[in-house]
Amino acid sequence: MDISIVIPSFNEENNIRTGALSGMVDYLNQQKYTWEIIVVDDGSTDKTAELAEKFAQNHRNVTVLREPHRGKGGTVIAGMLKANGDIVLFDDMDQATPIDQLEMILPKFKENFDIVIGSRAGREGAPLIRKTMALGFSILRNLVLQLPYKDTQCGFKAFTKKASTEIFKRLQIFNQQQAQSGASVSAGFDLEILYVARKLKLKVAEVPVVWHHKEGTKVNPIKDSWEGFRDLIKVRINALRGMYK
Fold this sequence. Notes:
Layout: E1 2-9, H1 13-17, H2 20-28, E2 34-42, H3 48-57, E3 62-67, H4 71-82, E4 87-90, H5 102-105, E5 115-119, H6 128-144, E6 157-160, H7 161-168, H8 189-199, E7 204-208, H9 221-240
Parallel strand pairs: 1-2, 1-4, 2-3, 5-7
Antiparallel strand pairs: 4-6, 5-6
Helix pairs in contact: 6-9, 8-9
């Protein structure tokens, strides 16, 4: 089995300097499967791209893809379409969900699931406002899109290569051409992915994963709540127009 890990990165200099990439590589080197890491730089304004490229020079399984700034959605899409693995995972550079949680994800693919998503039970250490946001968002997404998942927003999702290709080429709201300004977590991105997966009748498993709140998160409670609601409505409108066939 070949595993591709896509790491969207916007101004992640500190996480790289404190060993995020080296920790991932140390773990993956102990596994029996072959792997690659694709760091997708989202037009960072710090030294993220330079540090990642320097790291990649000494690690043949790590590559860096420099992209214009589009926010997490467009950055993940670029990496997912570039990946070569049989299984393609996207994960966050800060390792809020650490790479060793692959142990929870991979067995589900042997059960013929097309997609496996992490679920953050309890959201340990998260501020009250983030927990409140998550609750409100879950109520809205169930009402509007009827997605039957406990946690759609965890940044730890894996796909078979076929499922990845079928989904990411169909995304309408988040695509490789969209420009952004400033940090953007693209709250509606995961919703569009999972809605398209459901329309395609792909098998999705949701499994509990370890997650820790990280200081310095790019989540903006007001901005991201509004954008998440806006994107949720956009997904619904696109669905009514038949744009996800």
